[in-house]
Amino acid sequence: MFAPYELALGLRYVRAKRRNHFISVISSISMLGIAVGVTALITVLSVMNGFETELRARILGMTAHATVTVPGGALTGWEAVAARAAQRPEVIGVAPYVQGEAMLGFGSKLSGAVVRGILPGEEPKVSDVGEHMLVGELTDLAPGEYGIVLGRELAYAIGVAPGDKLMMLVAQGKLTPAGYMPRMRRFTVTGIFEAGMYEYDRTVAMVHARDAAAVFGLGDGMSGVRLKLADMFEAPRTSQALADELGPGFHASDWTRQHVNFFRAIRTEKTVMFVILTLIVAVAAFNIISTLVMVVTEKEADIAILRTLGASPRSIMAVFMVQGTLIGLVGTLLGVGGGVGLALNVETIVPWLEQSFGVQFLPADVYYISRLPSELHLADVIQIGALSFALSFLSTLLPALRASRVQPAESLRHE
């Protein structure tokens, strides 16, 4: 009774039993539609956030946050560069590497590969490929023994197993009386890894950095150094600052440049899904318009009496805005609660559904990520809740304006 009469009357219209029960059904459907739309929007965006984080972790498990190289040549004295990089507080790991392209052959099968030379003792500082070994260890790569570790799909493509000897052909060859001859070297397969990303499992092979330098003709040099940072999102600034500090002959790159199209595609998909699912909320919110229009038509006599008692058009408008806003608010709160609960438990609910119905949504033999990861962001919840409430509020304006223009004499003439 302490509330303004517009608020009290609007709440009474929501609670009261109407003669036209169809209006109550439409109001419930509108409320439920908003709740379902908000729940779906929060859940889908959380799952897409989880996929983005999972894929980023798998990509950065094989590639460093940043690299510093000397374009078109070998980096000699990499130890000094690594020591300079390690002095920066944001750098938590440094390791040299050699990288080149080669053809791997075994029997009658050939396949292109990206050959990466590493120092087994330094590599864990910048990547976690050692944690994904299916057979063997990175430490099995010893200088001068020409051992090689292959991705699972690459090993399957050329049909090799640990212990087999394959042939590596690289373009850096020499001119002989018989013509240009590519450089060839026999390697022994010492291990197989599975990073969980087809791009790496199918194309990457690892050898000892000294063996790679010998094959690619780098002598005692390296292709560059790789950096791991405390904050991966500082990679562009940190790598460029280090390259500028080292001098004009150095080039910096980072993970955001190397995979820019991939992460841009994910962001585009998130934006499109946000727009599509927002339409669900919008349709439910616009149902409030039809609900309030019917209420206004039913309550024309009541509106006329209020006007004759001195109610202003603004007050009449406020009464129906309260009613429509309450429908939107309750639907939004239900949707936020359902969306947050579902997003936080989707990794438990989905396996339960798979086990209960005997289905598998993401088969492990088709998808490398065979579970639905979820990562709930507070900013997404606030944004979705605010958008839903705003759409609901805007949907009340037209019917409420119509109610404020009801003419008392015209409405009461037929009563």
Account of the protein in words:
- The protein is an alpha+beta fold.
- The chain has two domains: 204 residues, no CATH class; 179 residues, no CATH class.
- 53% of the residues lie in helices and 19% in strands.
- It is built from 14 helices and ten strands.
- Strands 2-3-8-5-7-6 form a six-stranded mixed barrel.
- Strand 6 and strand 7 form a beta hairpin.
- Helix 9 crosses helix 11.
- The model has no long low-confidence stretch (mean pLDDT 82).
List keywords for this structure.
single chain; alpha+beta; 6-stranded mixed β-barrel; 14 helices
How do the SSEs run, as a string of H and E?
Answer: HHEHEEEEHEEHEHEHEHHHHHHH
Total domains: 2
> Helix content range of the residues, please?
40-55%
- How are the strands ordered across the major sheet? 2-3-8-5-7-6
Q: Determine Rg (CA atoms, Å).
A: 33 Å
Which ranges are low-confidence, i.e. pLDDT below 50, for 5 or more consecutive residues?
none
Shape: elongated
List the helices and strands and how they pair.
Blueprint: H1 5-15, H2 21-62, E1 66-69, H3 78-86, E2 91-106, E3 109-118, E4 133-135, E5 147-151, H4 152-158, E6 165-176, E7 179-193, H5 198-203, E8 204-208, H6 209-215, E9 224-229, H7 235-246, E10 251-254, H8 255-258, H9 260-298, H10 300-308, H11 313-357, H12 378-395, H13 397-404, H14 408-412
Parallel strand pairs: 3-8, 5-7
Antiparallel strand pairs: 1-9, 1-10, 2-3, 2-6, 2-9, 4-7, 5-8, 6-7
Helix pairs in contact: 1-11, 2-9, 2-11, 2-12, 9-11, 9-12, 9-13, 11-12, 11-13
Summarize the model shown.
The protein is an alpha+beta fold. It is built from 14 helices and ten strands. Helix content is 53%, strand content 19%.
